[in-house]
Design goal:
Blueprint (H helix, E strand, L loop, with lengths): L3 E5 L10 E5 L14 E5 L2 E7 L14 H10 L4 E10 L9 E2 L3 E5 L24 H10 L6 E2 L3 E5 L7 H9 L4 E3 L2 H10 L3 E10 L11 H22 L27 H6 L1 H4 L4
Parallel strand pairs: 1-4, 1-5, 5-11, 6-8, 7-9, 9-10
Antiparallel strand pairs: 2-3, 3-4, 5-10, 6-11
Helix pairs in contact: 1-4
Length: 281
């Protein structure tokens, strides 16, 4: 079973790095994932891949079925998730084509299902450190030295799919945020609820709209995504074989967090979340 999951962001639809590929048609209690997961090997490591927006970029950031994507990876046995995300920069010193491994998120979304725990079961899980520090260190330590990589930063997640106004972009800059995107939430929250380590490789495509010398257009973003893709493949081929599979605190995130009395949790609810809650109920 694959222990490492890869979620491909904008521009990452075809898992060219993966060998011995096989599509898995998986159902979840939350519907179908964005695309059938592809399992295979990268440098001998078993991996499972899901393109976040679907194979042909069918789903905008608010339409993505994040719960189905994360649940499908959990069902496949994934313990560590690497997410790739195209982002805008909110800092002059973070330039287009740079890579950021963020350590914090600020949530500005408002229309998304962000938890597995509903309909008769409630859990309050710690999320102070939204990205797994151990997995993020693995990524940083084994990334190629030829890339400009920032090992920490705050990712502000907006609703999308429209880009920010200049007023909003400058507000985020004034708050000290580093990069901006549309997909880290609820993906990171759901991974934590699923007791999976989650970290992000964020590739910068633009300066968002605050920069007076550059207009953010989809044409520009696509052009830069194509350049970033080669870098991402190189980084992933180095990182994935070296990811530690030692147990991490993320894998016990649910311990002592379920607030609902076990005696009132219905069998239907328990069955729905069996891949997540089975060791606690």
């Amino acid at each position: 079973m694959p222990k490492i999951g890869l979620i491909g962001g904008s521009g990452i639809y075809d898992p060219e790095l993966i060998e011995e590929t096989e599509k898995k048609d998986i159902d979840t209690p939350f519907g179908k994932p964005s695309s059938p997961p592809i399992v295979g090997k990268i440098s001998g490591r078993d991996v499972a891949f899901i393109p976040r927006h679907g194979e042909n970029h069918l789903y905008n950031p608010s339409e993505v079925n994040y719960r189905a994507n994360i649940y499908a990876l959990k069902k496949l046995g994934v313990r560590k998730i690497l997410a790739t995300n195209a982002v805008g920069s909110l800092k002059k010193n973070i330039e287009p084509l740079d890579v950021v491994i963020p350590n914090q998120i600020f949530d500005r979304t408002k229309n998304r299902n962000s938890t597995f725990f509903e309909d008769g079961i409630v859990a309050h899980i710690g999320f102070a450190e939204p990205f797994c520090p151990t997995l993020s260190s693995n990524i940083t330590n084994y990334s190629s030295k030829k890339y400009s990589i920032q090992a920490k930063g705050t990712y502000v997640c907006i609703e999308g799919p429209m880009f920010s106004t200049k007023s909003e972009s400058n507000f985020y800059r004034n708050q000290g945020f580093d990069i901006i995107g549309m997909t880290a939430i609820p993906e990171a929250k759901l991974a934590r609820e699923g007791e999976m380590c989650y970290s992000m490789i964020a590739t910068v495509t633009d300066y968002d709209v605050w920069h007076e010398d550059e207009e953010v257009t989809m044409e520009l973003v696509k052009k830069r995504m194509a350049k970033n893709l080669a870098n991402l493949k190189d980084i992933l081929s180095e990182v994935i074989p070296n990811i530690s599979l030692n147990e991490c605190q993320c894998e016990n995130a649910l311990q002592n967090t379920i607030a609902t009395n076990e005696g009132v949790i219905t069998r239907k609810t328990e069955r729905r979340l069996k891949h997540i809650v089975s060791k606690y109920l």
